């Protein structure tokens, strides 16, 4: 990697875009915990891998992270795990696609440094050759500094139909060549023609651009986007470690991508051809393509086994997936859903999830494990007038001070130590001890230790839904 010597400080402000729900990777990816926060391959989540990818402080400044309201504490915890400290963590009150998020980042970065250059990065991509990617980014600095919008086009290794394409106007010219055409996801025959020509690259969605140039392009091509972003920053407020955007103002922003709002209209777009082992993991078949296949072409993750099967992707999360005598199949099992599809049909999973959402099926939105700022809980069993949950509170975590109108609770500590507030009492509850919380009692649970606190909660009453919570005080500022 060659880093320009004339840069007095790290040149680039990375912007990690963490919107998206990864619907095509359902049932593992869901609204409450989307694919960017899941360890889809390896031990780290895609978000963590992206954050570490831009950790070289010779080239990159600390990142701006743009995250949805529902996922802000997940992002904080995952950054803390890898010892990455963001410059700013911007909270979107509603999802509005990538253009409003990029506009907010450009406005915020410009306030700090009028010459800032942004590297817009979706937080859910896989890049195997990170040295090649970093070298490509460094090579685009000069073009970005001269007012170009630098895109990174991935050299295709197949005639993929799941990606958008960019046609270069100078395929064999300079490192950053002009863009002749943007193409949406093509049909198979068209993709074959693109691949054979050598003139087309996959559109990675990664962009290097000076903040002031991006704002000028937004003002010209999408003024409603930048006006809403500017108002949302003015109405925003600091909340713990977050910059929370004004909800009403940000809600006025059109829901549109940076590609459709600016890149496809700009006269300043350039593209750098990159070969770096990139995929956006847009479908289960992509995980099969980059996975470690056995002699029969099968990729198995988690708890999975097969016999007389070929070219399959099998994944068991919590339960065993066993396949016999099948070919070209995807089977993914979580604790509450089993997905079965052919590899060539996995793009249709999004349509299935949309149907489940219309029918208000819980599995379309959340999984059995529900994440909270203090940890998570899992529903183990539910019946008439009772529910059993497992609750895990991370060290220092503290539930809200709350009460319920329709249920009583019984807590049994399995491991760790709990401090329990029950009306006027404050009690220390140790491993193998329990406490009863009558209906209507004001109570709170917190973990004062350095290890996770695990307990079993048994609820009893006529109404056991999560909206039977009256929060009296909450350190996480939830309603």
UniProtKB/TrEMBL annotation:
The keyword Disulfide bond does not apply. The keyword Nucleotidyltransferase applies. Its EC number is 2.7.7.13. Coiled coil: none annotated. Belongs to the mannose-6-phosphate isomerase type 2 family. It is an enzyme of class 2 (transferase). Keywords: GTP-binding, Isomerase, Nucleotide-binding, Nucleotidyltransferase, Transferase. GO terms for molecular function: GTP binding; isomerase activity; mannose-1-phosphate guanylyltransferase (GTP) activity. This is mannose-1-phosphate guanylyltransferase. It comes from Rhodoplanes roseus. GO terms for biological process: GDP-mannose biosynthetic process; polysaccharide biosynthetic process. Pfam families: ManC_GMP_beta-helix (PF22640), MannoseP_isomer (PF01050), NTP_transferase (PF00483). Residues 366-474 form the Mannose-6-phosphate isomerase type II C-terminal domain.
